[in-house]
Amino acid sequence: MSIRIAPSILSADFGRLESEIFEVASADFIHVDVMDNHFVPNLTIGLPVVERLAQISPVPLDVHLMIADPDRWAAKYAEVGAASCTYHFEAANNPLQVARDIRSTGSRAAVAIKPGTPAEAVFDLLTEVDMVLVMTVEPGFGGQEFMREMLPKLGALRKAAADAGTDIWLEVDGGISVETAPEAVAAGADTLVAGSSVFGHLDRAAAIANLRVAAR
Ligand SMILES: O=C(CO)[C@H](O)[C@H](O)COP(=O)(O)O
């Protein structure tokens, strides 16, 4: 299985975002964290910036919405060019409809769960989404410690997806490094978000290559 790497621009220099995303052009996706200071206690970027990033990025965008009311917003992010659009199960009024709205745009739909949310919460959605994101930190900030106690959720999701006859991607986000990536992959992850472990290095291409080797 080839592992997908998605550097999180939360740890990039927002003053030189265009050159930052070109420095991670060897990645499979660029992970874009949208935060609204309601669903999480932090505020980042919104729709116009994501739209422009989608136009200039050499790599497809994996947009992670950490916002309230994804029912209203998620499809708009998909429409402006998010190749993959992730919303939080905990934030959605109608999680099934949000997935359908995203997919109706042609984008990949993904649902995320916070550390306190059990994998079982999204079992009913597995045939309606293309990916589940298991948070391995509390969403809101980069540079936090990896919560390895979240890893059993990956096996549970993989089994539930197989039982439902569907094949989904499983993404992890938070504290992913060359040390923790092998654990996440062994537990069933195939898509790794990495913020500080990529943008914390001067040579971003080398950091991505090192993650790929570690995740093999
Ligand atoms: O969603 C996020 C935080 O809510 C970030 O994508 C994540 O924390 C990445 O940062 P790091 O790899 O440094 O943990």
Automatic annotation (TrEMBL):
EC code: 5.1.3.1
Pfam families, alphabetized: Ribul_P_3_epim
Full protein name: Ribulose-phosphate 3-epimerase
Natural source organism: Demequina lutea
Binding site for substrate: S8, H64, G140, F141, G142, G143, D173, G174, G175, G195, S196
Coiled coil: none
Entry's Gene Ontology molecular function annotations: D-ribulose-phosphate 3-epimerase activity; metal ion binding
CDD domains tied to this protein: RPE (cd00429)
Entry superkingdom: Bacteria
DNA repair among keywords: no
Pathway assignment: Carbohydrate degradation
Enzyme active site: D33, D173
Cofactor: Mn(2+); a divalent metal cation; Fe(2+); Zn(2+)
Binding residue positions for a divalent metal cation: H31, D33, H64, D173
The reaction(s) this protein catalyses: D-ribulose 5-phosphate = D-xylulose 5-phosphate
Function comment: Catalyzes the reversible epimerization of D-ribulose 5-phosphate to D-xylulose 5-phosphate.
Keywords: Carbohydrate metabolism, Cobalt, Isomerase, Manganese, Metal-binding, Zinc
Note on how the cofactor is bound: Binds 1 divalent metal cation per subunit.
One biological process term in Gene Ontology: pentose-phosphate shunt
Family assignment from sequence similarity: Belongs to the ribulose-phosphate 3-epimerase family.
Cellular component GO terms, alphabetical: cytoplasm
